[in-house]
Design brief:
The protein has 150 residues and is of the alpha+beta class. Helices cover 39% and strands 19% of the residues. The protein has a single domain, classed as Transposase IS200-like (Alpha-Beta Plaits, 2-Layer Sandwich), CATH 3.30.70.1290.
């Protein structure tokens, strides 16, 4: 086959360091637009970016030319550089060291987009830690609580 083709969809989740609520209602729309642009600049499709004060969710079509680790490193590094000068309250902004990346099929994409769109409502009753544990359990990922949170 002379052409390399792929369709790899991932749900990416990462939080602010220590889940500090840095991401205000005012900054979030610009941040999510910026994260989507960063992904697209890496030849990845960003179907959605949204979140709340302490974390983000992204639905991304991964390019065949970049690893998940390299993409997320790029997203976190560049968005952190962009965020810090936006407001004095963001001067000490940092993302957590880790991240979650979960695979899904094309038929699951509409449900994921709805889930990402409704983060505000979802987090009125569920903390980030509770939500993240649900995803780890759903995907049968073994983890040690001592090293999941930073």
């Amino acid at each position: 086959m002379p052409q390399s083709l792929s369709k790899i969809l991932i749900h990416v989740i990462f939080s602010t360091k220590d889940r500090h609520p840095f991401l205000t209602q005012e900054i979030r729309p610009e941040l999510h637009a910026y994260l989507a642009t960063l992904a697209r600049n890496q030849n990845c499709e960003c179907y959605r970016s949204n979140g709340v004060a302490d974390h983000v969710h992204l639905a991304i079509g991964l390019s065949r030319t970049i690893t998940i680790a390299d993409l997320i490193k790029h997203l976190k590094t560049e968005s952190s550089k962009w965020l810090k000068p936006q407001d004095a309250t963001l001067e000490k902004f940092a993302w957590q060291k880790g991240y979650g990346a979960f695979s899904l099929g094309m038929t699951q994409l509409p449900k994921l987009l709805t889930y990402i769109d409704h983060q505000e409502e979802h987090h009125k009753t569920t903390t980030f830690q509770e939500e993240y544990r649900i995803f780890l359990d759903k995907y049968n990922i073994e983890y040690d609580e001592r090293y999941v949170w930073d």
